[in-house]
What we know:
The protein has helices at 5-25, 27-33, 38-46, 51-74, 79-103, 108-131.
Amino acid sequence: MRLNWAALALAAILHWLFGAVWFTLFSSPWQAGLRMAPDELQRYMTHWNFWPYLISFVCNLVIAYVIARVLGAHEEYGLFHGIGVGILIGLAAALAMVTEMVFEERAAGFMLISAGYPLIGCVLMGIVLGVWKPKAKVLVTA
């Protein structure tokens, strides 16, 4: 099975950038759902740490790899197949998050924001990986 590494990297970057937009749009209700004291949240925001961003990007890369492997297993590529695989993998991630957050008694809005991010992000990655299929192997004959 061939992988398109450029598409994989682009999908991970797209998901990562989507997270910046998503959590900026929903910053107020999401921060309220964190249940952090205002002074603790302010301290966290003023002391920038690159590790969460790096770890997030690596996780996005791994998720993109999984989506690419699922797409490649069926050797079916295309917009709708990519969307379908993205929905399935995104739903698995989102539902796992909801399962945890419901026991933490998080607010419904916080759960929707938090779980919506991987669901939509996986669909975006599925689109990139579904449309930009890997090149076929070139057979060299002697």
